[in-house]
Amino acid sequence: MLDALPPVTDKRLLSPIHHADDAGAVRLGDGRVLLATTDFFTPVVDDPADYGRIAAANALSDIYAMGAEPLGALNIACYPDRDFPLEYLIEVLRGGQEKMDEAGALLLGGHTVTDVEFKYGLAVFAICREEDLWQNKGAQPGDFIALTKPLGSGILATAQKADDLSPEGLKKLVAVASRLNRYSAKIMRSLEPRAVTDVTGFGLVGHALEVARNSQVRLEIATDALPLISPEVLAAMDERLKPGGLFKNIAAYADEVTVREGVPERLAHLAHDPQTSGGLLFFDAAPKWPDYERAFAAAGETLWRIGEVTRGRGMYLK
């Protein structure tokens, strides 16, 4: 769709749209970069405050994926005008505010729109030095591929909507999806990864392929190393509780993805599951892996090594 628009050629633009960076980046002319991003969506859980926390963490994540700290944000809320319980909106905004406070971001206001279905999210901005900026390019053959959050939020949210998710499964979903990527990013910043993105609606496969294309490399993902939010992710898939976005992702990336014969279908599907407020996906030289392991363990943050970068193009799920 964006290809139909005139290209932006201003030299101040650091992240062209076709690179699909996590946030727009504009040079300010003094060695600093302005970052801007926005994201909002319909409820993924029933509790309004939890929904607000998850939506805010998701929107803030794009800034962390670029190596920066959020400075400010604007609320975006869409809700039906007639007989809508404003108490619900207040709880959503309260949950979002909690995450902005945790992130140290300033709430500057926002905008509401009348809509048939409720939606909430943020427009977020940040400023950082250009030399500190992370982008979704620069991965090299021999690099490891690492992920900071487990997968399966799209599948679990679908199970919850079908009243087929246990209270413990829901608790795990909310805990993972509302966790700020701030803490993982802080650890990574000290070790200077080569390439970084976050995993959201396009699933692990879609966001990893953006790095592969921009870096002109091939990615090999070990499907048996993919972490799960809860064992209920696999149980839900066995009951065919999968989000529509999962199948859209499979169709969208089929030409670039090869699945090894014998890989269980549910693991291949897990790699395509659209995530809400997923983890950071990053790439760095293999000898540095022990440094990341030690640093994440010392901070009590989760980390999984899920693959490696090779020469070629596309992705191999093995």
TrEMBL record:
<dbReference type="InterPro" id="IPR016188">
    <property type="entry name" value="PurM-like_N"/>
</dbReference>
<feature type="domain" description="PurM-like N-terminal">
    <location>
        <begin position="21"/>
        <end position="126"/>
    </location>
</feature>
<keyword id="KW-0418">Kinase</keyword>
<dbReference type="GO" id="GO:0016260">
    <property type="term" value="P:selenocysteine biosynthetic process"/>
</dbReference>
<keyword id="KW-0067">ATP-binding</keyword>
<dbReference type="GO" id="GO:0004756">
    <property type="term" value="F:selenide, water dikinase activity"/>
</dbReference>
<dbReference type="InterPro" id="IPR004536">
    <property type="entry name" value="SPS/SelD"/>
</dbReference>
<dbReference type="GO" id="GO:0005737">
    <property type="term" value="C:cytoplasm"/>
</dbReference>
<dbReference type="Pfam" id="PF02769">
    <property type="entry name" value="AIRS_C"/>
</dbReference>
<dbReference type="Pfam" id="PF00586">
    <property type="entry name" value="AIRS"/>
</dbReference>
<keyword id="KW-0711">Selenium</keyword>
<protein>
    <submittedName>
        <fullName>Selenide, water dikinase SelD</fullName>
    </submittedName>
</protein>
<keyword id="KW-0547">Nucleotide-binding</keyword>
<dbReference type="InterPro" id="IPR010918">
    <property type="entry name" value="PurM-like_C_dom"/>
</dbReference>
<keyword id="KW-0808">Transferase</keyword>
<dbReference type="InterPro" id="IPR036676">
    <property type="entry name" value="PurM-like_C_sf"/>
</dbReference>
<dbReference type="GO" id="GO:0005524">
    <property type="term" value="F:ATP binding"/>
</dbReference>
<feature type="domain" description="PurM-like C-terminal">
    <location>
        <begin position="140"/>
        <end position="315"/>
    </location>
</feature>
<dbReference type="InterPro" id="IPR036921">
    <property type="entry name" value="PurM-like_N_sf"/>
</dbReference>
